[in-house]
Amino acid sequence: MDKKKLALSAMAVLATVSLAACSSNKSSSSKSGTTASVKLSPAYNNTKATDKTATKNSTLKVAEPNDSPFQGISDPVLATNSEDADVFAPGGSNDLWKVDKNYKIVDGGLANQKINRKAKTVTITLRSDAKWSNGSKVTAKDIEYAYEVIANPKTTSQQYSADFNHIKGMAAYHTGKSKTISGITYPDGQKGRTAVIHLDSVTPAMKYSGNSFIWSTVEPYEYIKNVSIAKLASSSQVRKDPLFTGAYKLDKVVEGESTTWSPNKYYYGKTPQIKHISINVVSSNNIDKAIQSGKYDFTVPGSVMHGTDYKQLKNTKNYKLVGQPALSYDYFGFNVGHYDTKSQKNIMDKNSKMANKSLRQAMMYALNLDAVTKKFGYGVTWRANTLIPPIFDKYYDASAKGYPLNIKKANKLLTDAGYKKRNGSKWRSDPNGKKLTIYFGAMTGTSAQAAEYQDYLQQWHKVGLDVQFTGGKTMEMNSFYSTLQSPKQSKIDVYAAAWGLSSEPTPTQLYGEDATYNMGHFVSKKNTELMNKMNNNQAWNDAYRTKAFKNWQEYMNEQAAVAPGSFSYNWGPVNKRVKGFDMSPKNNEFWSSLSLTSSSLK
């Protein structure tokens, strides 16, 4: 159930209704770092007997809550949002690893891993029966080619970060100085089963899936080798007829709407029991009614369901609610620079509109996130206090305060920094006396989310900041991210978004100097130094590594270039005809473990 670091849709931003009653000048709560007030299990222990006829002949109907069509990029190296990962999940995401309950890599997956600290190598050995869904062999070249796609100078992948430069030859390949990656070798040839990755150092993050040093999926090299890497994301091999290594093979894609699946006879693991699976996009306005009327068996594990949905569905007949702390968080980002395409690095612009730290801090103190989450989170969502979610309990800083509402402090920060009301204006101008209009980017979602965004604007207006929607309204998801991911843009100054994280918390891929996901372009020597400490040689000591993570969280909170919004449960409804449902990390056979106790959804 590992996921790469991905951008999330508007569905991931807390849904609320009108907040006029709960927005005020004082925070409703100064407490932060709390957990969900409800208790959910990641598994549904259905003790009914499996109906073999139903399991063989019925279709498992799965919903993907989303307010936009999915992009349709099946390749995890190239996908940029979690919705694509969700609708192609039965294919197994081409993951190499089997993991335990803490996402630590263990033997028994598509491949095994061996870290040699002395030799500074990671050896990846594929199982002898590893095959693609077309029956072709998974090879050592398939392991290596993922790195080529990630680091190619013309790639559309957004997974590259400085962490990959620890692989010998990777930086030279990434900058176009070399046509190959010298640090990846094949002891028994490219068509063999083993790849060895040579590094300048090995790190503790490498013990866990989803880390930003060793990539955790394979690419079907022979199948896609004739497609240029620059055009791979739009190719039929990725969009229409992709290959997978998981329990199911793709039968059909209806662009932006649905995917359908049947068992992959070449799968090495547990034989899948259900013969037909369909995954359909369902809008946030319709998802509750769709579940209540029994149209779907469950929502894709990892997809986003809100507190308002929990309120509507918690007592729904014939459904069981399951959940666990989410590998995600909502956040606010500020545009403070640009991405230099030549150097392939983010550049801070000291003259950018949002460059002043006091302005960013004030905007966060002006928001009443405690009131929002308390009133409308219904126990499954709460105000975030850092940029590391509590599922990483070893590294999460529960003592961090984050940004509780403090209007008085917000006003003082602005005034002291020179953002003052001049000539009788109701709005503050910038320190140079020039008109200040701040443009807020937010994705179109439910009517409830629209009310939340209006509350943000209202709170910012309270402290004298003229904040307006970019373009005068919310933005469609793909347009929103397309704007943010432009190397340089001035349409969005502050934005509300969310991350779907991988199962290892090193944040370099999101906030590193050369991370393409660093959409606000915040860069500092201190930030780089703090992130590097999470995986230096001393970080093999757990106490040292834990302190490094907590120091980074404190620094990022103080800088407020990216500020925490909310944490939540990853939860969903499961129809009581489903058996074998367990979304916990240790269940590496999620899709193949499912069966049905009835032919009909009730």
Task: Write a structural description.
Strands 1, 13, 14, 17, 18, 19, 20 and 21 form an 8-stranded mixed sheet that branches. Strands 9-10-11-2-12 form a 5-stranded mixed sheet. The chain has 16 helices and 23 strands. The model is unreliable at 1-5 and 9-33 (pLDDT under 50). Helices cover 22% and strands 19% of the residues. 56% of the residues are buried. It is an alpha+beta fold. The two termini are 27 Å apart. α9 (357-365) packs antiparallel against α11. It has helices spanning 52-57, 82-87, 140-151, 170-174, 221-224, 236-239, 287-292, 307-313, 357-365, 369-376, 407-416, 447-462, 477-484, 508-511, 525-532, 542-559; strands at residues 6-7, 59-65, 98-99, 105-106, 111-116, 121-126, 184-185, 194-198, 248-254, 258-263, 276-282, 298-299, 319-325, 328-334, 337-340, 345-348, 381-383, 437-441, 466-469, 494-500, 562-575, 578-579, 595-596. Belongs to the bacterial solute-binding protein 5 family.
List the helices and strands and how they pair.
Elements: E1 6-7, H1 52-57, E2 59-65, H2 82-87, E3 98-99, E4 105-106, E5 111-116, E6 121-126, H3 140-151, H4 170-174, E7 184-185, E8 194-198, H5 221-224, H6 236-239, E9 248-254, E10 258-263, E11 276-282, H7 287-292, E12 298-299, H8 307-313, E13 319-325, E14 328-334, E15 337-340, E16 345-348, H9 357-365, H10 369-376, E17 381-383, H11 407-416, E18 437-441, H12 447-462, E19 466-469, H13 477-484, E20 494-500, H14 508-511, H15 525-532, H16 542-559, E21 562-575, E22 578-579, E23 595-596
Parallel strand pairs: 2-11, 2-12, 18-19, 18-20
Antiparallel strand pairs: 1-20, 3-4, 5-6, 6-8, 7-8, 9-10, 10-11, 13-21, 14-20, 14-21, 15-16, 17-21, 22-23
